[in-house]
Amino acid sequence: MSTSIDLIPVKPTTAIVGEDDNETSRRRGTSVWFRLLANDRVAFAAAGVLGIVVLTAVFGPMLVGNLATHIDLDNSNQAPFTLAHGWANVLGTDPLGRSMLARLIVACRTTLSVAVPAVVISAVVGSAIGMWAGYYRGWRETVAMRVADVIMSFPSLLLAVVVLYVFSPSAANIVAVLAITRIPVYLRTARAESAELQSRVFVDAARTFGAGATSIIWRHVLPIVLPTMLTVATLDFCYVMLAESSLSFLGIGIQPPDVSWGLMVAQGRTYLHSAWWLSFFPGLAIVITTVSATILAAWARIATDPGQRWRLTVPQKRLTKFTKTGKAL
């Protein structure tokens, strides 16, 4: 008795399976990072604070923009923490009767619109030049490092003061000056890591198989350098925001009618004895934002280091017990 088997052709599903695998890998990677962040309660709280700051900068001015410019001389310098004059004045008013809460929200967008572009520009330009110089070495590395040394020889804040005195102080000029003065930080860091990576075995293998320099830098060097650059950028965000606040405090930063946290501190310093909240609340906003960014940068440094990442996978109580006793978990 013979049995016949009909073979039914099946369409290949490699592409579909591959797409599903990639999507699954991306989701799994996102969930892993979220779990690492959730295991560190302090970093999780810092990330939440920064998220609130970003959402406030994006959507806040749309909701309270008119209140920030509404003048009411009858309610000038009203004390905070009272709803007698409406919810918008819960943080008090300034000498013109404008809502401090509304002005803080509008100033949040101005401050971030200066700090974020400055950090992004300096990080992209400095990292690109640093990886290029570190990979090729030779005269390229020498020229890049000497330019970085020249820029770093001038105090960045003093250089910004001089440039903004020569040119008109504006948001665009502040971004340009702060971005240029911060480029050497990324250039030197990226150059050091790229110079060490260009002699690694996997880079030599890619070069042997005919990969070009641009392809090697983009596919092999950048993924390893990127975590370090992100950590440096997070820390540098604090410096740039404080620098913008300092320039505004000196009167050569953001100019009225625009408002930033640093400018609000400068405008309220003459009322410290009679209206302390004019400088206190914008100063507190600067401190909270910079401390949160610093905490998140410390978490990112550990999370991107394979040798230290295990600390974020262990519950905090067990990690504390392990570090005190020195015993295995």
Give a brief description.
The protein has eleven helices and no strands. It is 72% helix and 0% strand.
Description:
- It is built from eleven helices and no strands.
- It is an all-alpha fold and 329 residues long.
- The protein starts with 13 loop residues before the first helix and ends with a helix.
- About 5% of the residues have low confidence.
| Termini gap | 65 Å
What is the number of E strands?
A: 0
pLDDT averaged over residues:
81
Question: Which H/E pattern describes the elements?
Answer: HHHHHHHHHHH
Main beta-sheet annotation: none
What low-confidence regions span 5 or more consecutive residues with pLDDT below 50? Answer: 4-21
Give the radius of gyration: 26 Å
What is the 3D form? globular
Strand content: under 5%
Percent helix: over 70%
